[in-house]
Amino acid sequence: MAIIHGTATSKSNPTAKPYTFSLDTDTGKGTCNCKGWLMNAARNCTHLKALKAENGLTDSAPTSSAPKAPTKPVSPKTGKLSPMLASAMPEGKTIASFTDGLHVCEVKYDGHRLLVEKTGGTILAYSRTGVTRELPKHLLSALAPLPDGIYDGELLLNGGTSTDVTRLDKQAELVFVVFDILQVFGVDVKGKPLSERRAMLELAVKHCTNPSVVLSAIVPVTMAAVQAIWNASGENVIIKQLNSTYRCDYRTAAWVKVKKQQSATLQIIGFKAGKFGPYSTILLRDQFGVETSVKTLNADWLRMFTVNATTNGGNPTSYIGKLLVISYNIKTADGKYRHPMADHIL
Q1: Which range marks the domain in which residue 214 is found?
Q2: Per-residue pLDDT tens for 246-262?
Q3: Which of 239, 250, 317, 334 could form a Cys-Cys staple with 256, CB 3.0–4.6 A?
Q4: Alpha carbons 243 and 151: distance in angstroms, whole number
Q5: pTM score, two decimals?
């Protein structure tokens, strides 16, 4: 019997005692002291699910230490492969959790995710939803030397954002960054670990001398490496487990997104109702007049606004005009905040 343990901090109350959970990798069963586990008849919760995913287990049955082969290799709607997806940073984990030599990190590019199938002289590209994408002529030529296979990558404009990829005046400048390989010469390699697929990919991309096809750089995970990516490109980071297999149409904890976070101070101008009540969303405006909104941080904030509304004639007017610090990823060219999140009220 192999028992593994984990801890996680409560999202709604970070100062509370951490949740503790354990998992029997032989039986796939586990225990947790969170309410989700206690209230679930199947005795499952988000903490155990994440722990199972990290250790290659499913909710229904245990597996070997390596993740299972993809259960949905082909989209039932399009008949095409769907790419593997990354998960958010698991509760209780930080970048330091992955500095074990068993993970690498690379840029999470801001472009259009594409799978490219090369068969003889034919090149077919399609999006993560299976929509066929017509590539510019210079990219078709640049991809032609690749060995027959299926490649995962990002179509992008250097120095641009995802919205620039469709600009008609920039098509000749687009590049394709390759970061994984699913098949080569008709052989399915999705079940091989990332370290082996990477070696195959490096050999494959060596055939391409055109700078429009780029091999994504990977480096060992360190805080300095992550910070360097943030500083150089302003993009997010993907941390990948070296022994992870490629699981189509699956959001896995073996690939983790690490978002670059910046902060800004904005003024509260109102609230918007939602499924958590009349104060589910906070409306904000910055010093330049740019407006945005963030979800109310947690249940404590919802109660705070509600109580204040009760004592102020049904409207939390004392919060209108106050300053709220948010964290966000980047600012777009028109000043909009990408992925804003509430942090604290000044």
Answers
A1: 97-258
A2: 999 888 889 998 877 67
A3: 239
A4: 19
A5: 0.60
